[in-house]
Amino acid sequence: MNRLFTGSFTNVIKRIPALYFNKQKSFVRKSTTASSISSNIDSVKDLSRPLPPYLYNDPSVYQLERENIFAKNWMYIGRLDRLKKLGDYLSITLAGYPIFIYRSPLTNELVAFHNVCSHRAGPIVPINSNNYGTALYGNQSLLKCQYHAWLFDSRDGALKATPNFSYKFKSDEKKCLSLKKINIEIFAEQFIFVNLIEMKEKSSIYTLFSDLLNDILAFPLNEYRHFESQCHLINCNWKTYAENYQEGYHIQSIHPLLNKTIQSKQYLVTNKNNIYSVHYAPSRNHESGQEKFLWVFIYPNLAINLYEQGYSIEHILPIGKDRTILSYDFFVRSTDDESQMSDRMAEAKEAMIRTLEVTNEDKMICEQVQNNLDAGIYKPGYLSPSMENGVQFFQNRIRNELKHTNLQLE
Fold first, then answer.
1. Measured between alpha carbons, how far is residue 16 from residues 217, 262, 318 in Å?
2. Domain ranges of the chain
């Protein structure tokens, strides 16, 4: 769940979508209360049931999710401001798909390819093997395979050279040996997204996230600078962790320090356009001045936690049917005032420490839930219409994207 503590950036830990606080007022959607959400529930028949447990531990399900969810949605990859120089690259493995973004030295444009050479499947740019393929930034002057040094054009991925191969490919043969290009879009001037299927089959990310754009651009994204990345292995299915993020029902039981800061019983999730969720929880201290902030979960696996003085990105990366990498990037708002910058860095690092404390609490409960899902005992109960509507949104998207398979989804 990894939400931030409300209050100043120092007190923030995890993310919770689209709430705005300041000293004058708090922004909350009117008439969105727990009682109003549940008032039209007359019987248990109206309640939603969770997904069946085998969807969290069957290897064939994970493969279908790779093909029908991660290969077909716009997926977050990384930040534009970390790819400024010619030859800069970002390498990442997303649900088993090795991908890289590259700033072409020939055009100064960003291009995206599958990180797989057409010769014998070697990587074109290095892969972060020590951390399960999580984001790796670097610089490489040429698109040259790490394995046998085949060379590719940085504009379109066309094959250019095959050293010591003893055969010269004809032009029509070379076309079949190009790198596989990937659709790429930049959202809110900073966030890089890719889509692995043909562009004609998908709407632009700006069309999908149009309502979210103004909320994100209310923050000075160009003024933030990256100061640390961390990744954590969690022994659970990626959905187990994402669903934990999508509700505040467990805060009172699992996060005692966070529960002292926010009114967890008033925790609200607002699902927007069947694409993302905005979370809200009022502070227990009504007198405290709170800076503007935005917590948003974007389906299927991204959370962004924006504050005026800093923010974090939480990337939920599946690496198997029952293992997930939680990848964090932390940013702080820069200033030319050295003393002020020093204070901001100290606050940012304190916030990061608190974030990781909550992460450890989530890791503990998610791994225990996964063990119980694997035990063969659990049969799905019901979802709370007021406290788990974010989970319902998430699971309904899963059902919709897997409905064309032979899986039992109820």
1. 17, 12, 21
2. 9-59+207-402, 75-201
Q: Which CATH class is domain 9-59+207-402?
A: alpha beta
Spatial distance between the Cα atoms of 367 and 324, rounded to a whole number of angstroms: 10
**Contact by Cβ (8 Å): 317, 301:** yes
Q: What burial class does residue 106 get, using C-beta atoms within 10 Å of its C-beta: 0-12 exposed, 13-18 middle, 19+ buried?
A: exposed
Furthest-apart CA pair in the chain: how many Å? 76
Pull the structure tokens for residue 232: 């954590």
Which position has the token pair 């901001």? 344
In terms of CATH, what superfamily is 75-201?
Rieske [2Fe-2S] iron-sulphur domain (2.102.10.10)
**Residue burial 246-259, b: 16+ Cβ < 10 Å; e: rest:** bbbbbbeebbeebb
Angstrom distance (rounded) from CA 94 to CA 316: 10
The tokens of 212 are what? 């979210």
DSSP bridge pairs for 193? 76, 185
**């969290």: which residue's tokens?**
56
pLDDT of residue 289: 54
Task: Please report which helix (H) or strand (E) contains residue 256, including its range.
Answer: helix 256-261
Q: Enter the DSSP assignment of 201.
A: G
User: Per residue in 160-184, pLDDT tens?
Assistant: 999 999 999 999 999 999 999 999 9
Per-residue pLDDT tens over the stretch 37-87: 445 666 677 899 999 999 999 999 999 999 999 999 999 999 999 999 999
Spatial separation of the C-alpha atoms in residues 272 and 399, rounded to whole Å: 18
Chain centroid, CA 326 distance in Å: 9
Interatomic CA distance for residues 269 and 115, integer angstroms: 37
Scored b (16 or more CB within 10 A) or e, 179-212 reads: beebbbbebbebbbbbbbeeeeebeebeebbeeb
Average pLDDT over residues 263-282: 90
Torsions phi, psi for 332 (to 5 deg): -130, 145
Name 53's Cβ contacts closer than 8 Å, sequence gap at least 6. Answer: 373, 374, 378, 379, 380
What is the rounded distance in angstroms from the CA atom of residue 75 to the CA atom of residue 389?
Answer: 23
Check pLDDT > 50 for residue 349.
yes
228 DSSP assignment: E
- Residue 307, token pair as written in the block: 């504050």
